[in-house]
Amino acid sequence: MLPLLTAQQIHEADAYTISHEPVTSVNLMERASKAFVSRFMQHFPDKAQTISAYCGSGNNGGDGLAIARMLNEHGYRQLNVKVVRFSDKATDDFNTNLHRFQHLSVPLLEIEKGGNFPPEDSAIIIDALLGSGLNKPLSGDYEQLVKHLNQLEKTVVAVDVPTGLPTEGAVSKEATILKAKLVITFQQPKINFLLPESGPHMESWEAVDIGLDDTYLQSLNSPYQLIEKGDIKTILKPRHKFSNKGTYGHALLVAGQAKTMGAALLCSSACVYAGAGLTTVCIPESGLTALNSYQAEVMAIIREQDQLPEIEWDKFSVIGVGPGLGKDDNALALLKNILANYHKPMIIDADALNLLATHQELLQQLPKGSIVTPHMKEFDRLFGEHDTWWNRLQTLKQKAQELQINIVLKNDYTITGTPDGKLYFNSTSNAAMASGGMGDILTGIITALVAQKYTPEQACLAGVYLHGKAGDVLALPNQLHVVLPGQVAAKIPAVIAQLTA
Ligand SMILES: NC(=O)C1=CN([C@@H]2O[C@H](COP(=O)(O)OP(=O)(O)OC[C@H]3O[C@@H](n4cnc5c(N)ncnc54)[C@H](OP(=O)(O)O)[C@@H]3O)[C@@H](O)[C@H]2O)[C@@H](O)CC1
Ligand SMILES: Nc1ncnc2c1ncn2[C@@H]1O[C@H](COP(=O)(O)OP(=O)(O)O)[C@@H](O)[C@H]1O
Ligand SMILES: [K+]
């Protein structure tokens, strides 16, 4: 798990590493710049490319100068540096790097306050104006320069953070931010890189290790964590030789209506592929033929219009409710019936979430440890409108604690909020998965994992990871634009096999 730190914490981690490793501040900058350069050279190996490095007079600018010096040493010859003197202050490490630069034959130009901007002929811009030290929105000269650079539409590679993007906290829609094609960031992605508002300002990011003290990073006990492959490998359990279907639980899914039966088929099918010992789905009779031909392994409980089905509650290790269920009075009566009779953690998705949104009192009846899986709109219907993702994140944290449930906020980097106030960002999945029914698959997977006695928290983290990984394995090698939910479900066993090998 990679702790995601705020700018202030990163600053403290820098200081701790400097005094405890020990390493001088300027040598830590040297290390960071070296890590940047090595990644930059993988992306831009052509040494004849024209490059301009724009440097502020803080430590981000210090990095920019060190990076330009190193690229020159590596034989990049079409290189120039523009030092921006919009502030009267300069950090010591910036000054040291400026001094180290001065004997080089690389052109260096200073841009003064209120001055005109020089013409820009380079194809690549290295953005080392401002980094994690940003403490207010850009204005004045900085804003003018960034607007000017943005309209040039060059290939911008940002050092650590795109200039003007706050590392955490709300991102204003009006903010001026230097648009990066690639951000090579130090040690860890910044929290805002994982939220949709960064989308218009950066195409991709890559984190490079600069050797900050790991024990110290972990000791900060950040509420924000990035889930990595190793975490999921630790969670997943092997299957035992003398096990049988009873070992892996009996999942019940309550889903589907005449016109949205596909959702019931998809989630119950995913539940089978994700390894539930037995899967039963509660559907209207109109879906039975489709169920039996789509996924023969799934059993059915038929529910009649206006009549609650007979359910032997004790038979089921877990219940998942909602995909394609509808929001009518029958669906509401069914949900209330489940909440009144079933007292183990359950999974609530889709229409059942919308019913909870309109009948908020039911939220309090969710058994502790239950899992809700809203996408952004469902989340806001449940917990109120949010105008920024940062605010939504804070509500997510607060509601998961208050209701003692797990909230899986589906997104590119899906975020799971847990009852202990942690927020786990997922690192798999891709845009080819933006296709109707994909959420139903996730519900089936998480339900299957709870059936197999994973804790609700483990089921969320592993379920979201496996779901996204299956989508990645299917889409990324051939750059597919779309993968279908059913394909994702069928890929789950292979993905689990890879992780448990
Ligand atoms: N040893 C280390 O610590 C390491 C650090 N590293 C590098 O340091 C970077 C952070 O450097 P930094 O803290 O010097 O801040 P930086 O982003 O250069 O900004 C400079 C100053 O600008 C100002 N300012 C803020 N907002 C503003 C605005 N809107 N408009 C105008 N001015 C504004 C503000 O000063 P103020 O004006 O508030 O006094 C701020 O202090 C980090 O991203 C990484 O690249 C790596 O080398 C690894 C080792
Ligand atoms: N652009 C994207 N990048 C990564 N994952 C995505 C993207 N779009 C959708 N997904 C994933 O696909 C699923 C969609 O869920 P949801 O919106 O509930 O779909 P549906 O309601 O159609 O079943 C979520 O798990 C989400 O994380
Ligand atoms: K920058």
Automatic annotation (TrEMBL):
Any single biological process term in GO: metabolite repair
Keywords linked to the UniProt accession: ATP-binding, Isomerase, Lyase, Metal-binding, Multifunctional enzyme, NAD, NADP, Nucleotide-binding, Potassium
Enzyme Commission numbers on file: 4.2.1.136, 5.1.99.6
Domain YjeF N-terminal span(s) in chain numbering: 10-218
Cofactor dependency: Mg(2+); K(+)
The keyword Nucleotide-binding is annotated on this UniProt entry: yes
Gene3D superfamilies: 3.40.1190.20, YjeF N-terminal domain
Gene Ontology molecular function terms on file: ADP-dependent NAD(P)H-hydrate dehydratase activity; ATP binding; metal ion binding; NAD(P)HX epimerase activity
Domain YjeF C-terminal per the UniProt entry, residue ranges: 228-499
Comment on bound cofactor: Binds 1 potassium ion per subunit.
Residue positions binding AMP: K410, N411, D412, Y413, T414, G439
Catalytic activity annotation: (6R)-NADHX = (6S)-NADHX; (6R)-NADPHX = (6S)-NADPHX; (6S)-NADHX + ADP = AMP + phosphate + NADH + H(+); (6S)-NADPHX + ADP = AMP + phosphate + NADPH + H(+)
UniProt-annotated binding residues for K(+): N60, D127, T163
Residue positions binding (6S)-NADPHX: 59-63, 131-137, 142, 160, 263, 324, 375, 440
Subunit: Homotetramer.
Protein task: Bifunctional enzyme that catalyzes the epimerization of the S- and R-forms of NAD(P)HX and the dehydration of the S-form of NAD(P)HX at the expense of ADP, which is converted to AMP. This allows the repair of both epimers of NAD(P)HX, a damaged form of NAD(P)H that is a result of enzymatic or heat-dependent hydration.
Family listed: Belongs to the NnrE/AIBP family. In the C-terminal section; belongs to the NnrD/CARKD family.
The protein's name: Bifunctional NAD(P)H-hydrate repair enzyme
Organism phylogeny: Bacteria, Pseudomonadati, Bacteroidota, Sphingobacteriia, Sphingobacteriales
Name of the gene encoding the protein in the UniProt record: nnrD
